[in-house]
Amino acid sequence: MWKCQYCDKTNLDDKAICPYCNAPNPAVQKPNPANAPQSPIYPQSANKTQPAQDWESRYNPKQSSKPKLRSILTYTIIGVAAILLIVVLTLIIQKPVERGLSAAAAQKTEAVLQDSKDGVIASAEKETPAPTATPEPTRAPVVVDAATELYLDFGQSYQCSTSDFVLPSDIPEDEITWHCADNDAGTTCTKDGLIVAGDCQVDPEKVYNDEVIITGSTPEGSVLYYHVYSGNGQTYSFGWSTSARAMRGALSGYTIVSDEMLVQCNGFSVYYEYELTKGKMEANAWSVWVRENGTTWVRVQDIHLENKVGDVFDITLDHPITFNEIWIMPETYSQNYSVTTEFQVGYLLF
């Protein structure tokens, strides 16, 4: 039994060769070559000998560590060189890309910094605005008519109010200045908005006078309108009487008659014209009479007329009178005369 010094295996026999690694057993003596029989087929050759085997370096790991270390170092150097080559190639390829990325990153960084700077400035401006004067609150100007038309009796008053209008926003009453348009009906309005209907019926045949515009204006330009109609709803039609009336003894004549009584009338206007057709007039003085309550003639005013020259006369009564007949007659005349006349009554005062 012997232990192979090359593979460290224990052999149970005394074979000359280790069955595990084929290494020779050093304990076996080598045969003497001089006493060895010669082969009849293969004679010995003095020039050919078997090359010696380096069993130590082949089978002894401890003795063969240098070649293995050299191989490891060689492969390590090759691997490192390959890695360096790959790194160099990667850097060469990525360099332009990195340049572009660096430029883009620089632009982006600059944009971000600029945005941040602008944001800080905007935020600072927003947080600390420049002081400005606070404007007075204003309303949008409007132009509005009153919701309904306003009908007033003669002399009736009415106080203007924004409640008569549909407004988008409240307008204080004290900010409105009122005034009345010129009119023949005598309607007026104070600047504070007190409307007073006139006492005149311009056209006796109309139920109400023509509209009168009352205007309210505000500082911001709003305009409010009232459409005012005055009257008592009564109409009057005048014509000649159908028969002559007698007055002052022998004097008689036709009178101007209304189809309705003028109740508590304070006056009227009348256009009158005559043309002398027979006889003569000794003076141009004429007198105006009304028949109070349809019974008593009352002299109310004197006028002056010339032949064929018509004129309008405003007749003012010294107290309200109810009547429906008017008589206009000359003061002096001859016994025998005749005339043709024209008239028109208007502007009744109540």
Describe this structure in words.
It is a single chain. The protein is α+β, with helices and mostly antiparallel strands and 350 residues long. The protein folds into four domains: 1-54, no CATH class; 64-119; 143-230, Sandwich (Immunoglobulin-like), CATH 2.60.40; 238-349, Jelly Rolls. Helices cover 19% and strands 34% of the residues. It has helices spanning 55-59, 65-127; strands spanning 2-3, 10-11, 143-145, 150-152, 157-159, 177-180, 188-189, 194-196, 200-201, 212-217, 223-230, 238-240, 245-247, 251-253, 256-278, 285-292, 296-304, 311-330, 338-349. The strands form five sheets. Strands 9, 12, 15, 16, 17, 18 and 19 form a seven-stranded antiparallel sheet that branches. Strand 10 (212-217) and strand 11 (223-230) form a beta hairpin. The chain is rod-shaped. The model is unreliable at 31-51 and 59-67 (pLDDT under 50).
Strand-helix topology:
Blueprint lengths: L1 E2 L6 E2 L43 H5 L5 H63 L15 E3 L4 E3 L4 E3 L17 E4 L7 E2 L4 E3 L3 E2 L10 E6 L5 E8 L7 E3 L4 E3 L3 E3 L2 E23 L6 E8 L3 E9 L6 E20 L7 E12 L1
Parallel strand pairs: 3-11, 4-11
Antiparallel strand pairs: 1-2, 5-8, 6-10, 7-8, 9-19, 10-11, 12-15, 13-14, 15-18, 15-19, 16-17, 16-18
Architecture (CATH level 2) name of the largest domain = Sandwich
Main pleated-sheet profile: 7 strands, antiparallel
Which value, in Å, is the CA radius of gyration? Answer: 71 Å
Tell me the strand percentage band. 25-35%
Helical residues, percent: 10-25%
Classify the secondary structure makeup into a structural class: alpha+beta
Distance between the terminal alpha carbons, to the nearest Å?
Answer: 168 Å
CATH topology of the largest domain: Jelly Rolls
Mean pLDDT: 80
How many individual β-strands?
Answer: 19
Uncertain regions spanning at least 5 consecutive residues? 31-51, 59-67
Question: Structurally, how many domains make up the residues?
Answer: 4
**What's the overall geometry?**
rod-shaped
CATH class of the largest domain reads Mainly Beta
